[in-house]
Design goal:
The chain is an all-alpha fold. It has one domain: Up-down Bundle (Four Helix Bundle (Hemerythrin (Met), subunit A)). 72% of the residues lie in helices and 0% in strands. α1 runs antiparallel to α2 and α2 packs antiparallel against α3. The longest helix is centred in the C-terminal third of the chain and has 36 residues.
Length: 141
């Protein structure tokens, strides 16, 4: 296992697991069934983010770049699985904390993620043109 894999995959996974468990264990809010649902959604979101990052490999970047068009794995069905999975993680955290105002923050983040996805789509379409347009037709978000 190379150093890049450790930084890209294992450290975020461990950090996310620790955060989710700590929020579940000692965060404010009621300790009922909804908290368990939140923990499940947080784990699903975290797994999606890690799987997406692993699939992207060195093609991952924080800003929109077009180094390669990744169309395998989870990217064969969803164009932006990191954004979608991140929303599952945040939804899980909101449910675990029992703070309804968190949904306002989540709505703002959804708008931001949609804007980011559109910017990325423009960059990818400029670089990969017809190949990217075909990819968009067969995938969601």
């Amino acid at each position: 296992m190379d150093r890049g894999t450790i930084w890209r995959i294992w450290l975020p996974l461990i950090g996310g697991l620790i955060a989710a468990i700590e929020i579940f264990r000692s965060g404010p809010g009621p300790h009922g069934p909804l908290r368990m649902v939140g923990l499940f959604l947080a784990f699903v979101g975290l797994a999606g983010v890690i799987l997406s990052r692993y699939t992207l490999g060195r093609s991952f970047s924080v800003t929109a770049k077009a180094t390669a068009l990744v169309t395998t794995g989870i990217y064969s069905r969803i164009r932006n699985p990191i954004y979608l999975s991140g929303m599952f993680f945040i939804l899980g955290a909101i449910l675990m904390l029992g703070r309804p105002e968190g949904f306002i923050i989540m709505l703002v983040l959804i708008v931001v993620q949609i804007a980011r996805a559109r910017r990325e789509a423009a960059v990818l379409e400029a670089k990969f043109s017809d190949e990217y347009r075909e990819y968009r037709k067969r995938t969601w978000f």
